[in-house]
Amino acid sequence: MKVTILDYGAGNVPSVERALQRLGAESLRTDSPKEISKAEALLLPGVGHYAALVRALDEKQLRASLVDAIHRGVPFLGICLGLQVLFKSSEEAPRLQGLNLLPGIVSALPPGVKLPHMGWNQINAKRDLPLLAGIDAGAHFYFAHSFAALDSNEAAATCSHGADFAAVIERKNIHAVQFHPEKSGDSGARVLQNFLRLAA
Amino acid sequence: MSLAHRIIPCLDTDGERVVKGVNFAGLRHAGDPVALAARYNAEGADELVVLDIAASRDRRPTFLETIRRVAAELAIPLTAGGGIRTLEDGRAVVRAGADKVTVNTAAVERPELISELSREFGAQAVVVAIDAKRARDHWDVMVRGGRESASLDAIEWARHAVACGAGEILLTSVDRDGTQSGFDVSLTAAVSKAVTVPVIASGGARSPGHFVEIFEKGFADAALAASIFHDGVQSIRTLKEYLAARAVEVRLPC
Prior knowledge:
The structure holds two protein chains of two kinds.
Chain A: E1 2-6, H1 13-22, E2 26-30, H2 33-38, E3 41-44, H3 50-59, H4 63-72, E4 76-79, H5 81-84, E5 107-108, E6 117-122, E7 124-125, E8 140-145, E9 147-148, E10 155-160, E11 164-171, E12 174-177, H6 185-199
Parallel strand pairs in A: 1-2, 1-3, 3-4, 4-12
Antiparallel strand pairs in A: 5-9, 6-8, 7-10, 10-11, 11-12
Chain B: E1 6-13, E2 18-22, E3 25-31, H1 33-43, E4 48-52, H2 60-71, E5 78-81, H3 87-95, E6 100-103, H4 105-109, H5 112-121, E7 126-134, E8 139-143, E9 148-153, H6 154-164, E10 168-173, H7 185-194, E11 199-202, H8 208-216, E12 222-225, H9 227-230, H10 236-245
Parallel strand pairs in B: 1-4, 1-12, 4-5, 5-6, 6-7, 7-10, 10-11, 11-12
Antiparallel strand pairs in B: 2-3, 7-8, 8-9
């Protein structure tokens, strides 16, 4: 199985690629709708501004093939912005439309804590999650963001920084994490490995 | 359950090899950046910073190659900088594999550089480094490797840098750097209270107690050190175990 990485120019694409390589997985970076339609497993990395991701999806005409593939049941993993874009929209760029695959919107983390939420934090899983299999409950993951899906019913695991937000989402073939597994040491590698197993 | 305090080893390089100054002078060689990066990644470092302190134009390709080789060893975030003067310099560093770019002198001279980088990569990727030196009734911002005063108040500059789009402040005490007499707690606390973004304290670390102090009394979100890690005076693993035993929230490596 090969993982198709949507390469819209996000800074973390090379590190995601390297992390998959270390796990012995084959990957292909692409910004072509045709490749996305053929994908066996899809990975959408992202870091930076929400608008950059949404604009790239539209400019490169990737939106339709991506939504289509997810509807068809192709295993999908979204990282950071790749989680946020699954919702209807984000306060970071209120006029732009997300993929609208999950109900709700992405909001700013509340003031009163240091922002961006940057560094290693623990998460709280509401049930046994396939994506977190084999990872200690107290494990830390690396986060770097100022916006999040707050109080989302979609959260399979939450993290807290000023407010509770979705750290992990698992709904059918849609998997998404607000943290960066490619930067989260051994625990992060395990998350990617679990996704590879789920997708196989 | 809360955000862990980060321990960040720093590799000061001449573009290619790791060097470390005492009071920003008297450089000596300390090792191979790629080997050190691999060691810190395995020991439980939370991030790594790589700086080109020589930052000469003709050696830039060598430094970018160093970033590529270091990034290949890491499963943790990488910050790189030293001599970043333009958006294009920042792009080159990110393309080479850095997650964050750090700027110092050029940002003091032209604060728009911070906004440009922040717009392109997001605030979480922009670390403004401030070298501060104690003056009579304030802290002075120093530039050009700590040698020249910029005639700016460090706290004011930190606030302004955040307003321009900095996502983090890397705060070095020029007075403490290389002395191993402990972090500057009052400087760090003053800056940390003045800004809304995380602050990385740097300069003066030696004992594990210095780290407890900078987190508890200096309100640092992260602490950076170089030579004590390179020389093996302090291992990151034992430092983190020490901190955890004193109820300081840290990420313990497996």
